[in-house]
Amino acid sequence: MPVLPATAHRATTHSPEETRALGARLGVLLEPGDVVCLQGDLGAGKTTFVQGLAHGWGALDAVSSPTFIIVNVYRGALGARLFHLDTYRLGSAPEAEELDIDAMLAQGPLIVEWPERMQNVLPPERLWITIEHIDEMQRAFAFEASGARANQFLERIRNA
Question: pTM here?
Answer without folding.
Answer: 0.90
